[in-house]
Design a protein that fits this description.
Elements (H helix, E strand, L loop, with lengths): L1 E6 L10 E8 L4 H12 L5 E11 L1 H16 L4 E4 L4 H9 L6 H9 L1
Parallel strand pairs: 2-3, 3-4
Antiparallel strand pairs: 1-2
Helix pairs in contact: 1-2
């Protein structure tokens, strides 16, 4: 089960809304995440997605995040990822063929 927790703005942060993903972010339950991202990207603010409490992430979620990043870039908005050092996030990257050190992972998600 996935739970999406939206905080309007992270305390003391200029990064706009914070979307926390808890549980599994997989094809079976990706529609709620897609809808939340569409609504948040329609706002005129940067967005942070936090994967720290995600227990499982699959390729569908990774593709959705990549699409959200492109949409944000096209709209000249910033999209930040947090919690990407967690096993669930690293696992989906490795499953898709990435072999990353911690430094490379930081560079990949902050670009």
């Amino acid at each position: 089960m996935t739970q999406l927790i939206l905080s309007p703005q992270e305390q003391g942060s200029p990064n706009g809304p914070l979307l926390q993903i808890e549980g599994e972010a997989t094809l079976e339950n990706i529609s709620d995440l897609k809808q939340a991202l569409l609504e948040l990207l329609a706002q005129n603010a940067p967005l942070t997605i936090d994967f720290a409490k995600a227990t499982r992430i699959d390729l569908a979620c990774l593709q959705l995040v990549c699409s959200a990043r492109r949409s944000a870039e096209n709209a000249q908005k910033k999209l930040y990822l947090r919690g990407t050092s967690q096993d669930a996030f690293r696992s989906v990257l490795e499953d898709t063929g990435f072999q990353l050190s911690g430094e490379e992972l930081s560079h990949l998600v902050s670009a």
